[in-house]
Amino acid sequence: MTQMGTALRDDVADGAGDVLLAGAQAADELGLSRGEFARAVQLGIVRAGPRTLGAARYARAELDRVRSAAGPPGALREQVETVAGAEAAAEVVGVGPSRFTRLARCGHVIPVGYRINRYRAVVWLYLTAELRSFAAREPAILRGIAPPEDRELMAAKTDLRPRTWRGRHIGLLLRRTADPWERAAVLASVLPEGELREAVPDPAERIVLAALGPPLPYGHPQVPAAAAVATGLLKAGPPDEIHRYRTSLDFALAGARGQSKSTGERGPT
């Protein structure tokens, strides 16, 4: 899976003669910060090329494609712009923070990322463009009384934000690879350890899945206390969510094992 490259330019030509750039250089060429570039890669706006020593590289032709598709100057940055927290997000959609929090907890808007603040609380990030689109599309839910299903969720103190973020995160990762073992590794990464051992009893397969697993999301904290909070967001929680990922993993592994038997290219046989 892809990782942000170093700041050094990697003037290595691929088989087609195209120049490959490290992540920081690619971000500079697109006029984005490293965080904005990481978001563009996460969303599939920028596609990574071959990896060198584990770090993703980006073809100059891909950067040219992104620039031409983005449109006017600043349009690419608008696609990846985020706001952090309920107060900032509420301002974008034109409601109060408490109403926005209810909408997010009930799954009407889906975070695109997270931060852990100094109090070890999760601060959710939202795409500004998506918030504006939601406000234009759903004016009634912004102003009206909460629907019965929302009231039930709030009465049960349900918070769907971790689950909806995980679903989005895993879906985006799966879109970035067609390799059967890498797809299985993405699905395995979201299962708690005990569930993964039950789903994949073969230790050799678990080693392969761990080696191919996706990197931590950009901005994942390094401080141990904050990292522990963030790491909890990466794992499925409710039983029905775990069951869904286990079922998907079973299907992905069946395909990956079949590929290994027919080609011997990757994974246990």
Order of helices and strands: EEHHEEEHHEHHEEHHHHHHHHH
Shape: globular
Main sheet characteristics: 3 strands, antiparallel
N-end to C-end Cα span? 22 Å
Q: pLDDT under 50 segments (min length 5)?
A: 1-16
Number of domain modules: 3
Count of discrete alpha- or pi-helical segments spanning 4 or more residues: 15
Helix content: 55-70%
Structural class: mainly alpha
**How many beta-strand segments?**
8
What does this structure look like?
- The chain is mostly helical.
- The chain folds into 3 domains: 12-79, Multidrug-efflux Transporter Regulator, Chain: A, Domain 2 (Orthogonal Bundle), CATH 1.10.1660.10; 81-159; 163-263, no CATH class.
- It is 57% helix and 9% strand.
- It is built from 15 helices and 8 strands.
- The protein has helices at residues 23-30, 34-42, 60-70, 75-80, 85-93, 97-105, 128-137, 139-143, 148-155, 161-175, 180-189, 193-199, 203-212, 224-233, 239-263, and strands at 12-13, 19-21, 51-52, 55-56, 58-59, 82-84, 113-116, 122-127.
- The longest helix is centred in the last third of the chain and has 25 residues, at 239-263.
- It is globular and about 55 Å long.
- Mean pLDDT is 87; it is low at 1-16.
- InterPro entries: DUF6397.
- This is DUF6397 family protein.
